[in-house]
Amino acid sequence: MISIIEVKNLTKKFKDFIAVNDISFEVKTGEIFAFLGPNGAGKSTTIKMLTTLLSPTSGIIKINGFDPVKNQDDVRKSFGIVFQDPSLDEELTAYENMDFHGVLYNVEKNLRTKRIKELLDIVDLWDRKDHLVKTFSGGMRRRLEIARGLLHHPKIFFLDEPTLGLDPQTRNQMWTYVSDLNKKEGITIFFTTHYMEEAEKIAQKIAVIDHGRIITQGTAEELKKSTKTNSLEEAFLSLTGKKIRDEEAGGIDHMRMMRNMWRKK
Amino acid sequence: MRTIYILWLRQIKRYLRSKPQTIGSLAQPVLFLVAFGFGFGPIFKKAGGGNYIDFIAPGIIAQGILFTAVFSGIQMIWDRQFGFLKETLVAPVSRFEIMLGRTIGGATIATFQGIIIFFLSLIIGFRPYNWALVPVSLFFMFLIAFVFTALGTAIASMMEDFQGFQLIINFLIMPLFFLSGALFPLNNTPWFIELFSRIDPLTYGVDGLRSTLINVSRFGLPMDIFILTGVSILFLSIGSYLFSKIQV
To answer: Do A86 and B90 touch (CB under 8 A)?
Structure first.
């Protein structure tokens, strides 16, 4: 199989702070790949570099054969993304958000109309298509973002902590959609998470990242075998010397919480 | 082109859906028009300045446009905070088109606000001297709107949140408004006021509006158009440079 994402010796420094430290990995076409690590491990920074939002300090990235620094537009056409924080226009309807995306990605009108219907049906939002997004719950927004990210038939689908803040039921539902899409359309899925069970259940391959470094990578079985443990939880403990949720909620989490409180007013 | 169009359309849709905001942003200009117009009217007349309502109506139209334009530019901060900006930044379109689409969208809305104030001023008793020139003043409204939306977007590109917003209103927007000659004639003012007003792009906008609406001009129409066009190109260039540097 061919690698659709190739990363070699990737490093990102912010002044003195090294957010991502010399990481290398490959993701095969059609694979579901998880980036597992605690908050502040460098997961989002890596996704931002892969998706042209940040330029790397050093190292090589190839997305669908293109370099995110040199061939930005080719890279951008290759992927869809669901960001960690919502990125919908709340003053527009679900349909308008989809349509906006379709126009930006130059999806031809007839195809766009057909695809929007198809995707909104899949995520069970077709009957709410003309409602403003600000009336949507967290789970509905996330589903809409998934549908939107897939509108332009991307080859790779990035999901940055897609289940953060969702209740368990919505979380399961969401993964069902994503796994189905992976099977049906053969899309490569790259997601970050700090939930062990998600990585173990969904991903075919897992990279464990902590303090900006990839500690190990392989299938869940391989990780357990190499650390001689029975669960991924224990494997993580043995690899990093700590539990994944030991990390205190960082400043960004606090900010997110505050913002959510404000928005509920 | 499609990028510019869809970003423009988004702004228009949002504008049409936010009626409280539309009405709210009309309150201040109308208050100025009524309070100043009728309050200072008699003194202005006594001093030999003529009809004050006629004098300030173009100035108040410019004021309404200035505030709406800067604000719609600065609204990009919301998009950044609510994450929508990222959606446009990962799309396979040029940053310049995104910036241009936003600016034209904001400018259209600000022009529309200007037109509403124009009609409101008619109710209060303002009359343009020549209706045939009203389309030209519409063109001026758009130029003013474009200049200041571009300025707002440029400022928003440098700001992460609304912390500095009050600072910008008090130290930039208010002075731009007061020193533009929107409320009083700038003839015989002290040299430093005169100097500031010449640097202030809004001065040429107000002058252009007066020229087309009440046939009073300091610099002449060609000069006004020349300067405003120059400034809009300048602000748009600065804005798109700063916008291209945004990292989220």
So the answer is: no
